[in-house]
Design brief:
Order of helices and strands: HEHEHEHEHEHEEHEEHEHEHEEEEEEE
Structural class: alpha/beta
CATH class of the largest domain: Alpha Beta
Helix content: 25-40%
Shape: elongated
Largest sheet: 8 strands, mixed
Low-confidence stretches: none
Mean pLDDT: 95
Number of strands: 18
Strand content: 15-25%
Distance between the termini: 13 Å
CATH architecture of the largest domain: Alpha-Beta Barrel
Length: 376
């Protein structure tokens, strides 16, 4: 909570739950990444928070952008980025979207199989491609699935296929898992990337770039290592596995760039119990999974929640959203301790919500409007 957000909330007109993002925090986060990994280009992951205010600020600071769709490409361009600062980082793209990105000037594309390479070769001839490899994501609060990437041995074949089709086989990418708490997690992925570099070189294909992906965490209930710690560990891994031939590197922070910059203010709608014998309370807020808190799915992300009664006696609660959907329960498997004095009408502050909230908010489920957002 910054003083700027506190002042905004004191003076805002009541209009339901809202997200407030302090752009000064985003600026500070960008500068921390730039200092901690000075030889890496920052490609902000637009999907984390695609607001024009965030994109324009980052573009003015010199950031590049990792995009997942043509719409995100157009948003980055509108914010002031040039096409050479944009990566089409989704490995699952319609060919007509590849063609549109190429028309807009984008020349950097992610792939993870031969069929995707062939799309790029047809629709964006001569472009650079990097191949995403699988990574186990150990140590991440939200390990990523096998949906994206291929085994490193297959990546060599994919990149050779790209080379034969006239594309520039540019490099390798990986993702160590969202909210990665272990700064050493990049080491094994870098070892795999270095193996792909060597195998490609044996075939006469000289790669240039390693995309280190995202995974840089935001602080929720537990402390996380500083960005500088990640930077040092990654540099040591690059030296260990690439020696003096360190390749060009890029990073794709999303959550780590904007997560701690945002606060959601919500309201307690109901406090109840399910039976006379049951002590645990149900606390219903005017925001839930369908209002922007989808990352509470499987309780992967546990947001800090502040109340006007912090310091009072606490007891465990089950927290749920307002919609008529039984899945709209945030924390039940591991109940959440909240003040016993919490009451209907109280405002609560949900911290660390600058990433993946507005974009996960439903358009009009049950008639509830999308999450309002303010960037100050």
């Amino acid at each position: 909570m910054t003083e700027r957000i506190r002042e905004f909330l004191r003076n805002r007109r009541e209009d339901g739950p809202c997200l407030v993002v302090d752009l000064e925090v985003v600026r500070d986060n960008y500068m921390a990444f730039a200092r901690s990994l000075p030889d890496s280009r920052v490609f902000y992951a637009v999907k984390a928070n695609p607001s024009p205010e965030v994109l324009s600020l980052l573009a003015s600071l010199g950031s590049s952008f990792d995009t997942a769709s043509v719409v995100e490409i157009e948003m980055a361009l509108a914010a002031g980025a040039t096409p050479d600062r944009i990566s089409f980082g989704n490995t699952i793209k319609k060919e007509r979207d590849v063609a549109r990105a190429f028309e807009l000037g984008v020349r950097l594309f992610a792939v993870d199989c031969a069929a995707e390479v062939e799309k790029v070769a047809r629709a964006a001839p001569g472009s650079r491609v990097f191949c995403r490899i699988l990574c186990d994501g150990a140590g991440a609060e939200w390990p990523l699935s096998r949906k994206f990437g291929c085994e490193p041995s297959l990546a060599v074949e994919v990149l050779e296929h790209a080379h034969r089709l006239g594309l520039e086989a540019y490099g390798v990418s990986f993702h160590v898992g969202s909210q990665q708490g272990n700064p050493q997690a990049w080491d094994q992925a870098l070892a795999s990337a270095a193996g792909v570099f060597r195998a490609c070189a044996e075939r006469g294909i000289h790669l240039s770039m390693v995309n280190l992906g995202g995974g840089f965490p935001a602080k929720y209930l537990r402390d996380v290592p500083a960005v500088e710690t990640y930077g040092s560990s990654i540099f040591e891994g690059l030296m260990r596995h690439f020696g003096n031939a360190i390749p060009e590197t890029i990073i794709e922070p999303g959550r780590g760039m904007v997560g701690n910059a945002g606060i959601i203010e919500a309201e307690v709608v109901l406090v109840s119990t399910k039976s006379a014998e049951e002590d645990i309370r149900w606390v219903y807020l005017d925001i839930g999974k369908f209002g922007g808190l989808a990352e509470t799915m499987d309780e992967a992300i546990r947001y800090p929640i502040r109340t006007p009664h912090d310091g009072d006696e606490m007891s465990d609660c089950i927290i749920a959203g307002p919609t008529c959907d039984s899945a709209d329960v945030l924390y039940e498997r591991t109940p959440y301790a909240l003040p016993v004095s919490l009451a209907i009408g109280d405002k609560v502050l949900i911290e660390g919500t600058g990433a993946y909230t507005t974009t996960y908010s439903a358009v009009a489920f049950n008639g509830f409007p999308p999450l309002r957002s303010y960037h100050i």
